[in-house]
Amino acid sequence: MAESTEHRSDPHDDERVDERVDARVERTRRALQQAALELARAGRFDTATVAEITEAAGVNRSSYYQHYDDRDTLLADAIDAAEVEAVAGFPHPTRVPDRLPPEMIAFLAHFDADADLYRRLLGERGSPIVAARIRERFQQQAREGVVSSGTTAFEGMPIDIVAAGIAGSCLAVVHAWLELDPRPSVETAAEWVWRTLVGPGEPL
């Protein structure tokens, strides 16, 4: 009997195709995010057209609409990526450290480098979605801090309510710091945020 010559597909071929597609998608998203960030830094994002954004990103209009339904989400994703990059290389602790961690200083240094942009984003006419994303990051850290510290200062209050209150305070501290003229150092601001984050009167 003749040996069958039926082609059997290699499952690894599909995996490699998926990896190439994923990499292409990620490159397109990063190009759009970088373009949005640069336009925002120049104070032009709010008035930029989709054509101007895609031209700056080096992609076509259809690629924009494949990835984003609205410009606010695009800018929020761009800010997220920039903030993640700012603290890249720092380990994520399993509990809140006993003292001000270096990643907090790096995080605030990122705000300092883009102070004009963040003043606009966190101001009265800023971006609610960007502010919400930043608040959410503080909220996660606050929740971890309250739980790991074992503090009884908030006994009887739901942890999510406590974390939300602390996160809102941290965001207010950052915004107020950015508005100061002259603006205190990053280290000073990081200490303010850290003291707000770990709770009143009970340093970890």
Automatic annotation (TrEMBL):
UniProt cross-references to InterPro entries, sorted A to Z: Homeodomain-like_sf (IPR009057), HTH-type_Tx_Regulator (IPR050624), HTH_TetR (IPR001647)
UniProt xrefs under PROSITE patterns: HTH_TETR_2
MF terms (GO), sorted A to Z: DNA binding
Upper lineage: Bacteria, Bacillati, Actinomycetota, Actinomycetes, Micrococcales
PANTHER family for this protein: ACREF/ENVCD OPERON REPRESSOR-RELATED (PTHR43479), ACREF_ENVCD OPERON REPRESSOR-RELATED (PTHR43479:SF11)
Taxonomy, superkingdom: Bacteria
Entry keywords, A to Z: DNA-binding
Gene3D superfamilies: Tetracycline Repressor, domain 2
Name by which UniProt lists this protein: AcrR family transcriptional regulator
HTH tetR-type domain residues: 26-86
Region (Disordered): 1-20
UniProt DNA-binding residue ranges: 49-68
